[in-house]
Amino acid sequence: MRIDVYPTIQDLEKEKLSGADCVVIDVLRMTSTAVNALYSGARRIKLAGDERVARELSLSENALLGGERGGVRLPGFAFGNSPLEYTREKVKGRDIVMTTTNGARAAEAAIGAKSVRLCSFINVRAVAESLKASDHIIILCAGTHDKFSLDDCLCAGALCAYLNADEANDLAVGMRLLFEAYKDDIPLVLRQTKHYRYLESIGFTDDLAFSLRINTHSCVPMMDEDGWFS
Amino acid sequence: MRIDVYPTIQDLEKEKLSGADCVVIDVLRMTSTAVNALYSGARRIKLAGDERVARELSLSENALLGGERGGVRLPGFAFGNSPLEYTREKVKGRDIVMTTTNGARAAEAAIGAKSVRLCSFINVRAVAESLKASDHIIILCAGTHDKFSLDDCLCAGALCAYLNADEANDLAVGMRLLFEAYKDDIPLVLRQTKHYRYLESIGFTDDLAFSLRINTHSCVPMMDEDGWFS
Fold this sequence. Notes:
homodimer, alpha/beta, putative 2-phosphosulfolactate phosphatase, five-stranded parallel β-sheet, globular
């Protein structure tokens, strides 16, 4: 097994995608939210980088709209990007279209891979278990505004630790070792980063605590041929 | 003090360069070699990304030629890129022009910063001490073929640990924590990386051991107005 971790969409080596299983990570908060929405009973989730596309899709597919810009819920949307909003009573049996600043674009960039999964700290062990037989895994971190984001890369390191591949690129090696050194206190690491502090400053402390717990969820969202995750 | 670490030249935010002190890192092996050549008595070193430019400079400046492509010494050059070749008897009082695959291009990309220093594990504490009064430090890692290279980024983490800045980008935070967790066994980390293994496979085991010792050298190469380091 080989693992390549890419810190942003710009770094992705697109020519390698078709031969690999791709895992998209946007810990704060898109993939944490999507995992929790499906866990809470949502039927399917589609991700769209563009807000207009998301609005059109929600109409044509009779889907609920979720998402944010700058961390804050968009006007007229049923949900923002907080995993805690997606309660069973609100999402059960429903399709959801989400648009977010970074993660939805990463999920779009992953189209063309052999398979596409969504991963966060809350489901990282389940994702690893579903990939045990893969030859080549590409971990695509959403990043924050096209820059390296430590929350996503540290989660990639967690996935690398569980998978224990024979071959890995340098970022995969570094992040696995970082995760192994600090796995008992992920918030200690991430409290030092800008995106964590930004979300804290706009009141999302509960989301941070929720998103940084490890292996609380066992579901593994996988993309189907039409781009829906279930 | 603020620190930004960039893993490759492509990631550098060039518009920030003019207001910052820049540190160029290419642990395996350019900056280790340059530091050791100056420590061994070389008068000045100039770095050129282009081989033809390096050859012309060495003629016009009466300088010795050093450098590599693919890790191996170029034809007609006095030195390759092994720090151990640059002995006192060969370099004392001489100017040296070096061209290397990754590091020399990074040094060229740093031109325009308030100051430019060369750093490796062997002189990292000395570099940190020379920067105590800086407001903004940009650490530019050479990378390997324009990709994240863990040797350079881990050394950037060492520099961040010694500097203990108030503000840092996410890569700086992650690499500082990684260095702090593994600082007593840097080779343990880097033996897992591709570039280390490549250099080992072509016979440079002694260079690896030399380049991964911490704080054996106290000199801090700084670029002058004409692009020479001394």
